[in-house]
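Below sits the subject:
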Amino acid sequence: MEILRADKTHLAELARLFDLYRQFYECKPDLALARNFLEERLEHSESIVFAAHSDRDKLAGFVQLYPSFCSVEATKILILYDLYVDAPYRQRGIGEELMNRASRHAREAGAQRLDLLTAHSNHAGQHLYEKLG
């Protein structure tokens, strides 16, 4: 499994995963909306997406980060808003690899913090985030 920085060449697979991610949070399926949203973020450099590339040109999961700032601390931060691993690839450590890549990118980009939030019902995500500190 390779973790790579996603770009527009990965858009079809990334949109598929993003649509599944939104469905996990009880949104109606809408592949066109997912694709358009991601395309705009990537086109305008409004987010950073890392993806786990599996065999057969499939993406197994992704993490999406949004650059921001903390005005009180007068510093750059990154917000980790989206993390998703496709069902057939779960329990293989892919979520942890994606989180570690996001953390490394935050350090390399000079961000002082990597903030994240998740739903109270996302027990698997909470467990992973707590495990990684």
About this structure: Residues 4 and 51 are 5 Å apart (CA to CA). DSSP finds four helices and five strands in the chain. Helices lie at 11-24, 31-43, 94-108, 123-131. The first helix runs from residue 11 to 24.
